[in-house]
Amino acid sequence: MPFALGRLPVLVCGSEPLAGQVVTGLRGEGRRAEAVDRERLLELDPRRIHTLILADPPNAAALVAALVARGRHDRRSGRRPSRQAIRRLILMHRQDPPPRFTMPEPDSPWRPETFAILDRAARALLGRWPLHLGLDPRFGQRPHLLIAGFADPAQALLVHALRLIQYGTGRPCVSVVCSNRAAAETRFLGAYPQARAIADIRFAPVEDLESLLSPVRAANQRSGIEQQVPENAPPVTLALVCPGEATGEGLDLARGLVDRLAALQGVSPPVLLETGATASPGRTLAAGIEDWDGQIIPVSYLREACRPAVLLDGRGDEVARTIHDHYRDSIAAQGRDPDLEPAGQPWELLETSYRQANRHQADHVWAKLAVTDARAVPEEMVESFVLTPLEVERLAIIEHERWAADRHLDGWSYAPERDNPRKHHPQLIPYADLSEPMKDLDRFAVRGLPTLLARQGLGILRLLIVGIPQPAAGCPGGMRLRRLADQALDRLVVRYPDRALVLASTLSDRRSRELVREAMDREQGVGLFLLLPRPLGQVLAELPDPHDRRDFLTLTARAERRIGLNGETDLATWLSERADISLILGDRVPAGVVEKRVRLDPGGLGLDWNFEY
């Protein structure tokens, strides 16, 4: 009797508590999963296995070899594996490189994959909460990542952040505060000795957080000699708290960071708090959103890694696989067989190092879109998209910096002549110093961005940023204002069909919140940039009404960016420089708004446009 392979449960075998966490994670999202011990696994009829997850088992190589040997026995017994009989084997391990094991023969029904828990979790976390969540690189803001505590997954997150931290806005900064500062610094720099060529990376005890906000020391990319930089560290734009087992202490640490960053820098960056596998991360740490501080976001790297979308469905690998397929196509177009080249093997057979290179390039696509003020949308929403020459050059610089960061993390350094055994490379120099043919390689890579996403069924839309200054004091709210806003935004959508609408507001006024909420609920794809000229704690303190507080926090949770600004003057500058159109609420036009504006005057003229729409 034939087996319905698609209906068989995912089998999980391996070390505890990881194996149990994998089963729980799969079942929690409606997948059939069953735990099985090693002895029973080796007794099972292989035809009853469709997908097998080996959760970091002891002696993984021997277990894989035993499973593959049973497949060979199947072939000798006359059972020819059909396409439907292919068995997926996912070997979970702590971190790359994966354990060594013998790959099955090409005609084997087994298709092994390796899954580095810490590395994949870091990619997934920084995919959901990217480094540009708390900054605007087009406004000249530099990324500053703060890591508090150095337990798992801190180092993996730091390494992956260094691959993604290039936004073309000056030298990025990473600060690490932990109780075992010396040990953490030694361990990290021992594993990644060239890391300081990528960013200013500083370690300090938790109690010395203030010292990390003083003048920074930067490393010369060629000599490695540290030199004093006469400027203060940029404001923190994203924080990660990785406390280890003491989750309660981690919450105290996260709350302390929120208060100290508000006092020292006047900023309120998102704070990702690692809660461990046993906690249940949600949007808030308390029962209701009213008790949320607007910043601390509970996460669990193990839960993230065990999500079916990540572990089984390859979430996050879609663009990487497309990059690799495009590379295989380019090899074939040159008349060569990609299957005969190590870097040209099909994805399922590709060595881990080549897969990782594709993943790192793919993960940075979203940073490039952020720098371009654009977003990826379903392809049917886009007629065409072409990068301007200025955008190509800007992104080529960033792509070179990304490539250099990847090389540095692999231990490469600059030398006039390339020497692979010593990991010396002559192109590890600033983009401006590259030859034109070398610059063209970076330009070619970024020009292909629309085509790359198109192969994923995605198109690119530029953003239409609509700034909402503080409403005039006498502007009435309510239904009349919301209807005017709906009419104005509907006309903007028709006027700019090739743009994605993004509203930019402080949300500190109820009338602005009503407008933003109505727009996001009515029109699919409307985004929100939350502008923060002062710390969130101050904003919440000015909202004693529970309804207002809930309203503000609900919209804060929906914001795609939370942009910290230095007071009201900086806010006015941002609105005048970054907004494409100003939406004025009331009869008073504030000073410094952009030239294009539409005024919503519920008590007077209604809609007043100063440009053709």
Structural account:
The structure is a single chain. By secondary structure, the protein is of the alpha/beta class. It has 4 domains: 5-108, Rossmann fold, CATH 3.40.50; 122-305, 3-Layer(aba) Sandwich (Rossmann fold), CATH 3.40.50.720; 327-458, Globin-like (Orthogonal Bundle), CATH 1.10.490; 461-609, Rossmann fold, CATH 3.40.50.450. 38% of the residues lie in helices and 18% in strands. The protein starts with 9 loop residues before the first strand and ends with a strand.
Keywords:
single chain, about 625 residues, alpha/beta, Rossmann fold, Globin-like, 4 domains, eight-stranded mixed β-sheet, six-stranded parallel β-sheet, globular, disordered N terminus
Instruction: Look at the structure and give the CATH class of the largest domain.
Output: Alpha Beta
Helix content: 25-40%
- Supply the number of structural domains: 4
Q: What is Rg?
A: 26 Å
Contiguous runs where pLDDT drops below 50 for at least 5 residues: 1-5, 215-230, 280-287
